[in-house]
C-alpha cells in the first residue's frame, strides 16, 4: 500500500514526503527548519565547511526510513547551486547545496542560480563540476536546474548538455507481451493449436481420450518451464 501511494505523487510531492519522513525520524533535525541569524556565513564558508555531509550511523529500522535516507543522501551530490554573475566572462562558480537548500528544494524545484527564486519552466543541464574534497581534486557530472533566463546565461559561450526526462509511455517497450511469449505457449505439443486439433477430431468422429497421468505430469512440467521463460523475458529484457 505504501509503494502504491508513493507512485501516485508528483515529483515535488514525493520530495516533500521523503524529506519529511527523514526529518521526523532524525533526532534533533527539526532545528534545521529554524533560521539561525546569529552566525550567517559567506559562500566561501559554506563551501569549506559543508560540501560533505554524513549522517550519523543510526539504526534505520523500516523500509520507509531507508528509502528516505537513500533519497536524502543522493540529493547532496546530484544538484548544485551556481553563481552566474560573471557568465559573460565564461566564469561560472558552483557549490554543493547545504542541508536547508536540500530540504526546501533549492536547485531542484527552485532555480539553482544563487540569486534566483523562479519555480516555473526549469530545465536540467549536465555540467562538469571540479572541486576539492579533503585536499583531493575531484570531478563529477552534476545537474544544474535553471529557469529559462538563467539557462541562457549558462549557455552564453557554449551549449551544455540538456537532461530530459523520458515520459512513461516512451519508456515502455513497443513490443507487445504476446510477441515475447515462447512459441510453445501458443501451440500444443503436437505443433497445432488446440482448437484446430479439436475440430479435426470432431470431423473424424474420433473419441478424445483422457491423457494418462504420466502424460499430464509431462505437460505440467512443460507449462512450468514456459512460465519461467516468461519471467526471464520480463526481468532480463
UniProtKB/TrEMBL annotation:
Region (Disordered): 161-219
GO MF terms held by the record: phosphatase activity
Start-end of Basic and acidic residues biased regions: 203-214
Basic residues composition-biased segments: 161-174
Pfam family, one: Fra10Ac1
Domain of life of the native organism: Eukaryota
PANTHER family associated with the record: ACID PHOSPHATASE-RELATED (PTHR11567), PROTEIN FRA10AC1 (PTHR11567:SF25)
Listed name of the protein: Uncharacterized protein
Amino acid at each position: 500500500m505504501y509503494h502504491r501511494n508513493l507512485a501516485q505523487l508528483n515529483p515535488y510531492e514525493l520530495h516533500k514526503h521523503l524529506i519529511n519522513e527523514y526529518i521526523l525520524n532524525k533526532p534533533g533535525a527539526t532545528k534545521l527548519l529554524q533560521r539561525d541569524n546569529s552566525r550567517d556565513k559567506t559562500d566561501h564558508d559554506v563551501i569549506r565547511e559543508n560540501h560533505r555531509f554524513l549522517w550519523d550511523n543510526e539504526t534505520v529500522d523500516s523500509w520507509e526510513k531507508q528509502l528516505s535516507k537513500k533519497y536524502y543522501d543522493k540529493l547532496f551530490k546530484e544538484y548544485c547551486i551556481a553563481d552566474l554573475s560573471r557568465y559573460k566572462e565564461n566564469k561560472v562558480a558552483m557549490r554543493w547545496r547545504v542541508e536547508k537548500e536540500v530540504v526546501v528544494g533549492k536547485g531542484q524545484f527552485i532555480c539553482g542560480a544563487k540569486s534566483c527564486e523562479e519555480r516555473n519552466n526549469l530545465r536540467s543541464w549536465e555540467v562538469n563540476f571540479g572541486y576539492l574534497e579533503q585536499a583531493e581534486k575531484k570531478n563529477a557530472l552534476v545537474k544544474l536546474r535553471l529557469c529559462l533566463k538563467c539557462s541562457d546565461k549558462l549557455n552564453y559561450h557554449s551549449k551544455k548538455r540538456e537532461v530530459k526526462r523520458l515520459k512513461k509511455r516512451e519508456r515502455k517497450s513497443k513490443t507487445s507481451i504476446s510477441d515475447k511469449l515462447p512459441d510453445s505457449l501458443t501451440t500444443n505439443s503436437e505443433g497445432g493449436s488446440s482448437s484446430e486439433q479439436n475440430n479435426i477430431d470432431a470431423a473424424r468422429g474420433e473419441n478424445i481420450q483422457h491423457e494418462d497421468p504420466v502424460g499430464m505430469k509431462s505437460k505440467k512440467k512443460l507449462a512450468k518451464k514456459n512460465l519461467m521463460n516468461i519471467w526471464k523475458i520480463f526481468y532480463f529484457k
